[in-house]
Design a protein that fits this description.
mainly alpha, elongated
Amino acid sequence: MVEQLPAAVEDLRARLEDYAWGEELLRRARPEALMSDGGGGVATTAVMTTFGALGNFVIMLFIGLYVALDPDAYRRGLVSLLTPSARDDGDEVLRKATGSLKNWLVAQLMSMAVVGVLTWLGLWLVGVPLAPILGLIAALLAFIPNIGPIIAAAPAVLLALSDGPTTVWLVVGVYVGVQTLESYAITPLIQKERASLAPALVISVQLLMGVLFGGLGLALATPMAALGLTLVREVYVQRYLDREARTGKAAPAEKEGTDGG
């Protein structure tokens, strides 16, 4: 791939130079043109956005690593903030929340494996070189919702340019088909089996988090849904609503309101 991608990029440049709009696009894409456009505004914005995203990723990575290395210390710290009578319940809730996140991660790895295999088979049928490597890249980048598949498709499209536009459109069709299948069928169904997440809930939370928080919210949408569902079930349903039903007593706020009436 290291040998073939530069040649594919040069082939793309040569194809673009055959058109007037292509020459203009290449001229504007040069580093000196980007730096001189608006006093470096375009280049500065792109660099700051990229480094900001990388910085957020590194911070999230190290937080995850530190928590994973010693999760008991953080769980004990959270439990110690609760009143002594609620600490046993709090510890049980946190353990179940951890279990739900582990189930989500296993389901995510399974979904990534399916994406990699489907992409590999699709590219192999189309006749694109290096299909196994491209399938592996697609599997790894499937961890990033929506954005990852676009990045994964770029090298495959470049490699397909040498075979003509028909192959390019077939490659695009493979990635669009796999991404559609993964987003609306594979991942929701696997998450339902492994993490007890309803498909409609997963898609709805992804849309909501994407609108509110952008790419970062989209990446964290499914694990946050798994965590939130566990907390609602364990804290509100089982330890509030079901306990009230078992004891036959209303919650303190409801009793006070009844007496006041």
